[in-house]
Amino acid sequence: MNRALFLLVIGLGGAAILVALGVWQVQRLAWKEGVIATIDARILDAPVALPETPDPDEDAYLPVAVTGKMTGETLRVLVSQKDLGAGYRLITALELRDRRVLLDRGFIVTGNAGFTTPVGEVTVTGNLQWPQETDSYTPEPDINNNIWFARDVQAMADLLGTEPVMVVARTVSEDDPAISPFPVDTSRIPNDHLQYAITWFSLAAIWLAMSLLFLRRRRAPKSES
Predict the structure, then answer these.
(1) Which of 134, 127, 174 is nearest to 152 (CA)?
(2) Which of 68, 170, 201, 203 could serve as 22's disulfide partner, Cβ 3.0–4.6 Å?
């Protein structure tokens, strides 16, 4: 095999690999869009009763309706909202007839002087969620000042003495008007496959163009001195 043919094979082979990676990302994009559409549909389904033993995999995003009393034991999770600025998610213990679960009541801005807790029973419609917000870089919660930096269902349940089950409120029959519901949605599910596909296809075009340019230069007759 002469040098020109070898370079042609390398150029076409490299471009083919990059195009294949781009096609794979397009397929992943279609798969991820299907997953997100399925989750969106489930989030807005008619609410059901809270399962006896919710499963983090099977019951993720399950719409539920529960009635109980907020105990007032509330943890604050530092977050920000695009239009409202910095604030806290409020995670409160909710006592049902024979069990205690976590209730994500929603968002309150940091400048608010405080919030109240309903005294009587409330009915909450929302979705079950076990958010994966912690990693090795997440700071430990400041227990003394009641500031958390991520929702950690198990750790919060241990501290408040509830089941490791969180209901993220969509509506609450009675609550402090300063608290805005922060319902479950799919906006935070990563879906970067289109950008990845464009990157691979662009690299394939560049690889092929540079290979052809190199071949053209190799084949060009050398000028006589």
Answers:
(1) 134
(2) 201
